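[job 0417] fold request received: Histidinol-phosphate aminotransferase
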Amino acid sequence: MSSRDPMPLAGVFREDVQSMHAYAIQPSAGLIKLDAMENPHRLPASLQAQLGARLGALALNRYPADGINDLRAALAKHARMPEGFDIVLGNGSDELISLIAMACDVPGACILAPLPGFVMYGMSAQLQGLKFVGVPLTADFELDEAAMLGAIAAHRPTIIYIAYPNNPTANLWDDAVIEKIVEAAPGLVVIDEAYQPFASRSYIDRVAKHGHVLLMRTMSKFGLAGVRIGYLIGPKAVVEQVDKVRPPYNISVLNAEAALFALEHADVFDAQARELREQREVLQRALRAMPGVKAWPSDANMILVRVPDAQKAFDGMKSRGVLVKNVSKMHPLLANCLRLTVGTADENTRMLSALEASL
Ligand code: PMP
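[job 0417] inference complete; emitting structure tokens
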């Protein structure tokens, strides 16, 4: 091959990859960014300076080593990891989801998750060449117990994902149904607590009752979406298998130090999460009083709403300077739904007036 023409993709790149689209990130310059469940607060100025000094002093000439173990220990403590459990870090929980699919690629393997749910569960199955079974939620976005148990019996999934709470519906499902799913699972169950800072309960105190349940969390919603740290907690022998497929040095020394620093100042982030939970209630009240809008309960830093015409509302809000996520095309149950991230009090006020004017 000597021509400078682009090479033929067929026969080199997988056909399904050729027909895929890369994960789309909405351009947001100049807009109030309420589309990705980020914490709207930056690090306070005094902490920015301290972190800058800490990062500047790092040995960037060395591969990540001890700092990663320090962060693993700090996260294990922060999450109250049970005895006999271990923790593995990912470059965001997105990476952990891919690693789990890779480690569990046994013949006939299958990933099962309720739908609508987080897109990476299905994508990890597709990329690894595994079957994905999506089980529809009820019209009010609750787990369909019979459908879940039926699908588990029929497909014998290797991995089940239960988001706790779910994205994009923002709700926490019934624990009694989750326990039945956990008991019926023939393989791994991953409880995804990405939104834990905003949730009214956690699975952490129950995780040690089972030998096949993993708890996944991220620092993204805590306030470090730009840092990319996810973590997976589970029985040692199980976590060890995922760790074996992890690329060496997957967490940079800069990321690890920034995350350690944030944990040392967890009170700052906890206060921000508290304020966002209060703001969520303010938003809920305003949305429920808005004619034509249905808002569902939320245990996360987002609220799912249904409006008469989601595309019109999305475009109208964008033209008024507010970026949210139009999730209506993601799943038939989400027809005319928008996902609104909870922002600062000022951002929320502007978002509400943009929505009202765009219905
Ligand atoms: N799980 C859920 C349910 C999510 O909504 C997200 C991101 N929005 C993630 C995992 C991934 O988070 P990250 O890769 O930033 O850790």
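[job 0417] notes: The pocket of 4'-deoxy-4'-aminopyridoxal-5'-phosphate is lined by residues 37, 92-94, 118, 163, 167, 192, 194, 218, 220, 225, 230 (CB under 6 Å). The radius of gyration is 21 Å.
[job 0417] exit 0
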